[in-house]
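# step 3/5: fold
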Amino acid sequence: MAADLIHPGHINILKIARKLANDLESSAPNSPKAKVVLGLLTDKAIASYKRLPYMTYEQRLEVVSHLKEVDVVIPQDTLSYEGNIRALKPRYVIHGDDWKSGAQSYVRQNVIDTLQELGCGELIEPHYTQGISSTQLNENARAIGITTNARLSLLRRLINAKSPLRILETHSALSALIAQNSHVKHNGQKIEFDGFWSSSLTDSTSRGKPDIEAVELTSRLNTINEIFEVTTKPLIYDADTGGKIEHFAFSVRSLERVGISAVIIEDKTGLKKNSLLGNDVPQTQDSVKDFSDKIRAGKLAQITSDFMIIARIESLILNKGQKDALHRAFAYRDAGADGIMIHSRHKNASEILTFLDAFRKLDSNTPVVVVPTSFNDITARDLSDAGANIIIYANQMLRASFIAMQRVAQGILEHDRSKEIEGECMSIDSILKLIPGTI
C-alpha cells in the first residue's frame, strides 16, 4: 500500500489478512504466530508511477504501524513485489482485484509467476471496494490546494524519489496549469512535468521588458502567487546573480515565505546579460570567494531545511574550461550550495556530459541541474543516466506562445475576420474545462 490516505478499502483488505492469519494459527496452534506483513511503498516506488504522497514515508509508517491488524511493516522499494516475496515466502499475498487490468496488470502477473516458482503461497484478491478510490481522494484533496510548507518541501522529496525531474518554464497561471496537466504514457508509465521554472528571461519578456533584472522581486512574486493559487507542484526561482549579498539574504526569506522550493543564482557580476550570448557581449564572472560568501549568507538567512540554494556555474559559457567549472562546483558545494547547475551554449551536450562524468566520479550525491536549451537533441533520460537530477526546459512555453499569438494576429488582419484562424485557437469549451470552477 501507499497508505497516504487510509480509507475503508484498505481496512477491508487488512481485515481479510488478519482473518487469514488467525485461521492459520487456529489450524496449527503449536506453530509460530502467523503475522500480517504490510509492504509500504516508498516515495521512490510511488513516484515511479504517480505523484508523491502528501505524507513522507516516515509519516505513513507511523500511521500504519499503529493499525491493530498489522504486525510488521516493511519498505516496498519498487512497484514489483518480487523481492519481498522471495525474502518472506508468504503463505498468502493479498491485493485488491483492481490490478487485474491497467498499468499494474504486469505487476500482478509477476506476483503469480513468483509464487508459482517458489511454490510457497497463494494470491488472494478481494473485490475492489466500490465508491472509494485513493486516486479520487487525492484528486479531490489537490483540488482544494496545497499548503505553503508542503509545496516547499516537495522538490527535495522528489529529488530523493525519482530521476530525472522534468521542470517546465511558466510565466503565468495559465501556462502553469498547462504544465501541471500535461502528461504522456511511455510503456505504460505516466510521464509528466514535476514542477515549474520561474525564468527571469520569460518573466521580463512577458512584460515587454529587457532581460536585465528590470522586473523587481515583488512583481515576480505576484505572478508566482497567482501560479500557486491554481497549482500544487513545486517551483524553482531564477534569481539571476542574486544581487548584493545583503539583498540576497532578504530575497531568500521572501522566496521561502511564499513556498518556493529553490532559488538558482549564477556566478556573474554587473548588469545581467543572457548567458547564451557568451563572450559576444561583456560578461564578468564573480570570484569563487565572493560567490561562496553569497551562498553562505543565503543559507544563514533561510528558515526551513527544505529550501534549496542552487549555484549556477558560468565557466563553460565563458569558455573558461572544465577545470574552472569543476573547481567552482566543489567550492560552491562546500560553501553550502544544495545543488549545482552547469550551463553550456554549445549545440551538442558533449561538454555537459564531460562535466557530469568528472563531477560524479567525486560526488555522487549533490543534485545537478541542466538546462538543455542549446543542446536540445539529448533526452532528459540520457542526461539523467549521465548524472543530472533536474532538467529545466527554461523558455519554450513563452517562445511558443509568441509565435502562436503572432500568427493569429496577422491572420485576423489578413482575412479581416477570425473565421480562418479558429483552427489555431483553443476552443472556448476547452478553456472553460481547463480553469477550475468556471463550469
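# step 4/5: annotate
The chain is about 45% helix and 15% strand.
# step 5/5: archive (pending)
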